[in-house]
Design goal:
11 strands, 42% helix, 5-stranded parallel β-sheet, Rossmann fold, 2 domains
């Protein structure tokens, strides 16, 4: 149950449209709802501002359908991550409104347009890194952030990155997605004054060890202000970027108010 639903519930009680017993029954489902195979955290949106995210890998199609059906009664802009096309078709069969973002493998359930704030830049080293970059970008956009995509600007052709420096300088936070040796995160970190989130990908030849080489390279970056998420974790980077961007926008608004 998100904050808007909770406010609506309280308004209905106050106006007499809903009696106390009905309100109590609704509130009983607020902490979590037990489906037997999943305990849906309906209270998460009230705590964090974001509904619980559905991680689809490892769940059966019936389980995903059941979770989506119940969550869609209370929330909008629900993220279902690591969802293949067959998962999207199953969610459609559950008769809930949804949109699919193919490269990102993300389903947005009950999509709703909201105002986009701030400026997050998502940078990928190569075209092969785009699926992970899109997971970050779609996550951030769904959570209400303005996202600027800059793709295929890896260090093998560094002039491509230098050509878009103005876009980098305007960002509140940069998400840098790279496989191979993962050097792009250090380069971007040495150019910008905003926080940088490095996302190592599993893209690369044998000695990249499925992204471990890029992960270690980013963790050992000589550039300051770089944090690193797990291999291929575009969702985690997009979520973290959202939190940082919100703080940046809040600070800018306070400065304008004081000025």
């Amino acid at each position: 149950m998100d904050t808007n639903h909770l406010k609506d519930l309280l308004k209905q009680v106050k106006s007499g449209q809903m009696n106390l017993d009905a309100a109590m029954n609704a509130l009983k489902r607020l902490p979590f709802e037990d489906l037997g195979y999943a305990r849906i955290d309906n209270h998460r949106c009230a705590r964090t501002g974001v509904p619980e995210v559905i991680y689809c890998e490892g769940k059966s199609l019936k389980q995903i359908q059941g979770i989506v059906k119940r969550m869609s009664l209370h929330h909008s802009n629900i993220l279902a991550t690591r969802a293949g096309r067959e998962v999207f078709e199953a969610v459609q069969q559950a008769e809930v409104k949804c949109e699919y973002y193919d490269p990102a493998r993300i389903i947005v359930v009950n999509p709703q347009d909201i105002e986009k704030i701030g400026n997050i830049v998502v940078v990928s080293a190569g075209t092969s890194d785009i699926p992970v970059a899109e997971e970050a970008a779609v996550t951030a956009e769904t959570l209400g952030n303005q996202v600027n995509r800059i793709y295929d600007v890896g260090v093998a052709g560094i002039h491509r990155l230098l050509n878009v420096c103005d876009d980098l300088f305007q960002a509140n936070v940069a998400v840098v997605v790279a496989g191979m040796e993962g050097a792009l995160a250090s380069v971007v970190g040495g150019l910008v004054s905003c926080p940088v989130i490095g996302v190592p990908t599993s893209i690369g030849y044998g000695a990249s060890f499925g992204g471990v080489a890029a992960l270690l390279s980013m963790l050992n970056s000589c550039a300051s202000g770089i944090s690193v998420v797990n291999i291929d974790n575009g969702f985690g980077a997009g979520y973290q970027a959202c939190l940082i961007n919100r703080l940046g926008v809040r600070g800018q608004d306070e400065e304008q108010h004081l000025g």
